[in-house]
Write a structure and sequence with these properties.
The chain is mainly beta. It has two helices and 48 strands. It starts with a strand and ends with a helix.
Length: about 550
């Protein structure tokens, strides 16, 4: 082994000559960062192909990154024949990442390289991105320029179904739209009126009469996301979704005051945001916004019937606690948005035993069990490390799940908050409070290893059924070329092991989903410092999808 520190990038070119110059057939730029260098390095050759046509994909960026603390990283690009070539690669386990404009590449199979190995014919499939086109019209069939159109894709947040916008566009003068860059999959669509003051799009039939405004819709028509039509998009496909018709909807006003007081004169304006709640899920694509006056009052017009989560502040810096407001058949007045009073959660960690010096700095995460409001940044509170443990500052009031996220030979044995045991692994953080989170870590973890005996598995999922609160409940690991896997550093307890043949996200944190699939997994009960060897069969995608469809 020869220590190298940071290696100088080098370019390897293999090719033929054309007009007096060398044209590379496989050009590779590599960079290694490591504490040592293998005397007998490995070689990796492969190709990236279009999954729809089978043709090679040129100019794709290929990275292989070692899966260890002393990580080596190698970066290259495919040539006109889609080929890539890496040499002088240190032995070890690697992840492969491929990027190419206009294509989507799932996580690829991991590589296990030994000294002197020459790994040939690595084939990576890249799916060409798809396009959806269509037209937005009003209730009279006239085109709506500037309308917003979005493609929504189902996602899972801590075992609960949600939807995220995968792509969007605005209509042109003819009301036409084109949404490009969509990965293959299943989608739903929505259309919303153009930006601007909602009152500009409202029609009043007279004093005391309700207003009407150009409203939003899910395709093909309707205000309910769960009843929206689903459609599948194949790699590289162009899908014409025809017309989406925006209805005229009765609309009302939300009037009230922000408790946080008068405007401080910041350059960023203070806004009031009413975000629609669709069957318990925030639908940020259907939101109505307005300005807050200097005295803290607000009046938002053009709000269709429904449930809304209302909050005030500046983007990334909400000033009030969110408040749910229901709009039925009249204006809603007298809304008082309470000032946000952040809480502080101090963390004290106790180590059972005398091996604290072997642990290092423990990492604790706080997962908010409610989805964020529109103007809030999509991240949870961060712990600041202190000699006695750590502290979470500026914590929004609500219910949180503390998680011990460090790896190693320790697990959470017990957890208390504000002097009370967190038996279900959830703590209630009240507005403006200063609470103490006490975590006891115990030495001794368990491990599960095994083999996939039937099917082509990409991942193994280990789901905790009964472990002490505060420990990670779902563990995913890759399967090597021989179908073997190892999941170390688990807390003692009961688990179910599954093997899956794709890398889609599934609601493994949902107990009902796991229950529906339990008979296809392997149950394991492990005591402290023990291990288990299991054999699992790959779950079919049909079985996974069938179980997911039963989750609301």
């Amino acid at each position: 082994m020869r220590p190298v520190g940071m290696m100088r990038p080098q370019l390897q070119a293999i090719g033929a000559r054309r007009r007096g110059r060398t044209w590379p057939l496989a050009a590779t730029l590599w960079l290694a960062v490591s504490a040592g260098w293998a005397a007998d390095p490995a070689v990796v050759d492969g190709i990236v192909r279009n999954s729809a046509t089978g043709l090679p994909v040129d100019h794709a960026i290929v990275r292989i990154v070692q899966r260890s603390e002393d990580a080596a990283a190698y970066v290259g690009a495919t040539n006109v024949e889609g080929a890539f070539h890496f040499e002088n690669v240190q032995p070890g386990d690697y992840s492969v990442v491929v990027e190419r404009a206009g294509f989507a590449v799932e996580d690829t199979d991991p590589l296990h390289l030994v000294a002197g190995q020459k790994l040939r014919d690595v084939t990576i499939s890249a799916a060409p991105l798809a396009v959806v086109t269509g037209r937005v019209v009003d209730s009279d069939g006239e085109p709506v320029p500037g309308a917003h159109v979005g493609a929504l894709r189902a996602a899972w947040q801590r075992g609960k179904r949600s939807y995220e916008q995968a792509g969007g566009a605005q209509t042109n003068e003819a009301g036409e739209f084109r949404i490009a860059g969509l990965e293959p999959g299943r989608y739903r669509m929505y259309a919303a009126p153009p930006d601007g003051n909602a009152l500009r799009l409202a029609i009043s039939e007279g004093p005391g009469q309700p207003e009407s405004r150009l409203g939003w819709t899910y395709a093909p028509s309707g205000q309910d996301l769960d009843s929206a039509a689903e459609f599948d998009v194949a790699p590289g496909q162009t899908v014409d979704r025809a017309e989406l018709k925006l209805p005229m909807l009765p609309s009302f006003h939300l009037r009230g005051k922000v408790e946080s007081g008068t405007d401080s004169g910041s350059v960023m304006p203070r806004m009031i945001v009413a975000e629609k709640i669709d069957n318990g899920r925030p639908a940020s694509w259907f939101a109505v916004m307005g300005r807050i006056l200097k005295d803290g009052t607000f009046d938002i017009g053009g709000v269709p019937p429904g449930v809304y989560r209302v909050a005030a502040g500046r983007f990334g810096a909400p000033e009030t606690e969110p408040l749910d407001v229901t709009v039925t058949s009249h204006d809603v007045a007298g809304i008082l948005l309470p000032k946000r009073r952040p809480a502080t959660v101090k963390v004290r960690i106790e180590f059972r035993g005398d091996e604290k010096q072997k642990h290092g700095d423990p990492m604790i995460l706080l997962h908010h069990l409610a989805q964020e409001i529109l103007m809030e940044m999509p991240m949870g509170p961060r712990m600041t490390r202190r000699p006695e443990g750590g502290v979470f500052e500026n914590v929004r009031a609500g219910r949180y799940e503390p998680i011990y996220a460090s790896t190693g030979a320790w697990h959470v044995e017990s957890m208390m908050y504000a002097g009370r045991p967190a038996l279900e692994g959830v703590i209630d953080v009240a507005s403006g409070t200063d609470g103490q989170l006490e975590i006891v870590l115990a030495p001794g973890t368990v491990s599960i290893a095994g083999k996939v005996k039937e099917g082509d598995a990409k991942r193994v999922v280990v789901v905790a059924e009964n472990v002490p609160p505060g420990n990670v409940s779902v563990h995913l690991t890759a399967v090597d070329g021989q179908g073997r896997f190892t999941v170390p550093n688990l807390a003692p307890g009961k688990y179910v092991v599954f093997a899956i043949g794709n890398r889609q996200e599934w609601p493994w944190q949902n107990a009902d989903f796991v229950r529906l699939l339990r008979e296809s997994g392997v149950a394991v009960d492990l005591t402290e410092k023990s291990s288990a060897e299991v054999e699992v069969v790959v779950l079919t995608e049909e079985a996974l999808r069938r179980a997911a469809e039963q989750i609301p």
